[in-house]
Amino acid sequence: MQKIGIAGTIASGKTSFALLLKRRGFPVFNCDSYARITRHNGHPACEKIKAVFPGTEDEHGDIDAAKLASQVFHDEEKRKMLNAIVHPYVIEGMNHFFESHQDMPFVFAEVPLLFEAGLEEYFDTIIVVACSEKTAVERMMRDRSYTEEEAEARYHAQINKEEQIAKADIVIHNDGTLKELDQKVNQMVGTLRRKARGRC
Question: 155: which of 146, 164, 173, 189 is 20 to 30 A away, CA to CA?
Answer without folding.
Answer: 189
